[in-house]
């Protein structure tokens, strides 16, 4: 689609590149925003790429909004035949204790806000996606890798897009009304996105489990997280690995001591390779830990 430009107040320009989530739109977004960053335009304060869009904060006393819009339109046109198609990134293993007692206790307190009050979030997600039971659904959720297409909403929260053909992707609506509580490091799901809640707080995504892996570190206590305090970056690829309660306790204790060491491998993501054979590509991503 043609980009849609919307001004938000006097300092922000929001640019929508697609009405649906596509990795093609994500790569178009980072191509434009990387070009804007390299040009170092006077008056541009902050550049924030997102799932299929991006936003720019600017100083209206140094650059006119319409001037910035024209500049972005020109970048988009000039890059149309030469957009970024590869990304040097990481594959990260994220251990998940599915159907854990903490998210289960929380979701039971908010059943009056849910589409199916007599079932758990996992049971509901399994049913509407055609799986026989929660075990089959957990297998499906953890069997494919996930592409981090955006980090935000709250500090450090990654939105992850399933690396699978669209017709095979898991789809689950959010709660009918948001909860006022969600445990920290809950693995959630809303629409076509999985996420990990970086902090405890309100939320509307379905809750499938919890990870012991710290992903947000304002205290500076986790050596695997740098001074930005945020672990994930757009373009990271995540492999969820189911763990049991005993393994969770071991890893959670390591995290409490500041000794958690995630399994990470460098990786070059190739958009063309993925689009030619998404199933085979996803299988090869999983093999990096073999």
UniProtKB/TrEMBL annotation:
Domain Carboxyltransferase: 3-226
Keywords in alphabetical order: ATP-binding, Hydrolase, Nucleotide-binding
Keyword field contains Nucleotide-binding: yes
Molecular function in Gene Ontology: ATP binding; hydrolase activity
Domain of life: Bacteria
Alphabetical list of InterPro entries matching this protein: CT_C_D (IPR003833), Cyclophilin-like_dom_sf (IPR029000), PxpB (IPR010016)
Keyword Chaperone: no
Name of protein: Allophanate hydrolase
Organism, as annotated: Halotalea alkalilenta
């Amino acid at each position: 689609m043609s980009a849609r430009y919307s001004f938000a107040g006097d300092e922000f320009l929001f640019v929508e590149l697609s009405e649906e989530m596509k990795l093609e739109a994500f790569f178009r977004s980072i191509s434009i925003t990387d070009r804007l960053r390299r040009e170092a335009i006077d008056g541009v304060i902050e550049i924030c790429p997102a799932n299929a869009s991006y936003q720019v904060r600017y100083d209206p006393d140094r650059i006119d909004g319409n001037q910035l819009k024209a500049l972005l339109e020109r970048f988009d046109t000039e890059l149309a035949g030469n957009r970024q198609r590869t990304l040097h990134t990481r594959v990260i293993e994220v251990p998940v204790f599915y159907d854990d007692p903490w998210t289960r206790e929380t979701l039971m307190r908010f059943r009056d806000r849910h589409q199916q009050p007599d079932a758990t979030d996992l049971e509901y997600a399994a049913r509407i996606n055609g799986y026989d039971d929660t075990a089959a659904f957990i297998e499906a959720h953890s069997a494919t890798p996930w592409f981090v297409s955006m980090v935000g909403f709250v500090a450090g929260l990654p939105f992850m897009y399933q690396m699978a053909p669209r017709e095979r992707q898991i789809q689950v609506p959010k709660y009918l009304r948001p909860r006022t509580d969600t445990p920290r490091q809950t693995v959630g799901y809303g629409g076509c996105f999985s996420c990990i809640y970086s902090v405890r707080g309100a939320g509307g995504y379905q809750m499938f489990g919890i990870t012991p892996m710290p992903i947000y570190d304002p205290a500076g206590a986790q050596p695997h997280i740098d001074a930005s305090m945020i672990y994930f970056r757009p373009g990271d690829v995540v492999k969820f690995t189911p763990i049991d309660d005993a393994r969770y306790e071991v890893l959670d204790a390591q995290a409490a001591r500041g000794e958690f060491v995630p399994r990470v491998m460098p990786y070059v993501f190739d958009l063309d390779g993925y689009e030619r054979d998404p199933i085979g590509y996803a299988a090869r991503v999983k093999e990096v830990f073999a």
